[in-house]
Design a protein that fits this description.
Shape: elongated
Strand content: under 5%
Radius of gyration: 18 Å
Largest sheet: none
CATH architecture: Up-down Bundle
Distance between the termini: 24 Å
CATH topology: Methane Monooxygenase Hydroxylase, Chain G, domain 1
Structural class: mainly alpha
Number of domains: 1
Order of helices and strands: HHH
Helix content: over 70%
Amino acid sequence: MQIQDPELIERLGKRLRRIEGQVRGIESMLSDGRECREIIQQLSAIQSALHSFSRNLLEEYAINCLLPPEDQPINRRAQEQNLRELIDLLNKAP
């Protein structure tokens, strides 16, 4: 399934663009000869932002993509398969 909520897509896109800007900032910091401590602080901020983005995306995936639509009955076998898929995705995450 795909994310259907345009507001969510926009929110996630803004977050990714912010992260992209932070990565570009690190590139500039390296070119400008900034202190290692400052660069590491920025890296930490990027890692935190990516982690937050991942959590938000996984939450939306679990709620909107793994659950059947409200008008469909719950199929235990399909639900189990969906949960196993989610667990596999989580196990691949660092």
